[in-house]
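Table S5 (text form). Sequence records supplied for joint modeling of the three-component complex.
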Amino acid sequence: MTARLPDPPRTPPGTGAGPGSPYLNPYLAGMGLGLVLLAAFVLVGRGLGASGAFSSTLSWLVNLVAPAHAQANLYMQGYLGDGTTHPLKAWLVFEVVGVAAGALLSGLLAGRARFTVEKGPRVSTAIRLFCAFAGGILMAFGAHLARGCTSGQALTGGALLNVGSWAFMLMVFVGGYAVAWFMRWQWR
Amino acid sequence: MRLPQLTLNQKLAAVALVLGALALFSQPHRGPFVKLDARELALVVEQEVDHVKPSELAAWIVEGRADYRLIDLRTADEFAAYHIPTAENAELTALTEYPLLRNEKIVLYSEGGIHSAQAWLLLRAQGYEGVYTVLGGLDGWKDEVLFPVLPADAGPRDRAQFERAAALAQFFGGQPRADGAAAAEAPAAELPKLSAPAATGPAVPAAPRKKKKEGC
Amino acid sequence: MMTPFYKYGLFGDEVSLLVAFVLGLGFGFFLERAGFGSARKLAAQFYLYDMSVFKVMFTAIVTAMLGVTYLGWLGWLDLDLVYLVPTHLGPQIVGGLVLGVGFVVGGYCPGTSVAALATGRVDAILYALGIFAGTFAYAEVYPAIQGFVNSNAMGQVTLPEVFELPWGLVVFAVVVIAVVGFWGATLIERRFRSEP
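The corresponding structure-token record, covering 600 residues in total, follows.
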């Protein structure tokens, strides 16, 4: 790797909602998120999401490079459609672009936007990046099996009291806590 | 008495609890859109468990059963001229708002059978399970119950059946026709006045019954 | 019944894409405000010294849930028209477990990874690449596993329906559980934060 990326901004040890925390009170942030979600229900009749945008984008990319393969693939067919609409002209794709823009805005306002690697003190950048990549692969499987991720299933389905979403949400916490001990070298 | 100073988080929690408690009294809105299980409905129709015969209905009325709601889907004028005893009047458009409980037996009829079949689908789509149509509608009621016909070449079993049907017809003020003339009917056969039998209870309950909440 | 506006034809597909972008803006903004552009803060949830993920997630759920309940009660929102992801218990339970593991290994979930890479986190970029790779792998094996993926179909069901309870009662229960949970989470945080 080239020059070592700078450490992320120092945050006080108690990164919760106490005085001195640079972050918004989690309850207020949650209310903000909840109101955005409610707006989605009222305006469009659907909730938020993220994993679907990755599927759309991937299907589009594979279709560019190997169209025959993409169109023959049962999963990607669903995101490519019949060819009348561009796969990137999907609701979630536009929403996710908005997420990036909104996050950038907030980060710039708070002085938290900079090129860095989030990691614990004991792990090297290379290993952290590898774990991030591996985590992404796992996350893709989890999200597509469950038909959503924490945004689409937990938040949206949670607010609508969807059975599958609540079961999913519970399992996310179970899965996370189950392996946390084994991954602590990455974060502490 | 001084109230303790609450932190922002405690105030938020209090607001949430109040709103949550108030939500206990909420009622979900029933919009006009419905979800259909097409396969289930097709099966019900195929197995012919979606209708009752006029004679069955007649038997229930005679027995004085009160476990069903009979709904006449015709206009108020037609209803006033004649309706099957124990029936209530509710036109198709009024049916969605009509006070019906989800676990009641609801029997629908119209002039022939088309409107009752359509109302059957609409009610099933809204989640009512025990919905039935009267086979043949009011026409079927007239043919089977009010004006039963004894065919010319009837055997002893047919005769016995006709006797039973005739008794039923008398009960409802109809006219059994032993002469086998099935064709000549409507103008000659007048529909009985609504004197007997009286409905087993008030046709529409005094206090409107609330619809059960979703899923009960 | 006036809403959802899109379902009542107030605007078409093109505008709904614009609406998606604007909603995304709000979503991303609050995610970053809460600190979820940082994998360390997100992963901290699973080490119990920072329960923000739990607090933010459940506050958002309670807020939107109460909003939906009251708007429905007022007759302003037709909940039948809001899309409910169909329940498939088996794959959703397995998916949740896998996602939880991915959360601790990778440090993000798909939404927060986008928020993080927008603010320059290189690990989030790798994470997003991982999602692409994983999605590709999933698409390749999908024909083989689709039986499982579509199993345990329960249709679009809500908790009140399945437990045959009134909607309002479940809402109240969720609010109480959330408030108690928040109080408990704060206690846990204090306990685990005092350790070095």
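Note: Chain A has two domains: 26-114, 119-188.
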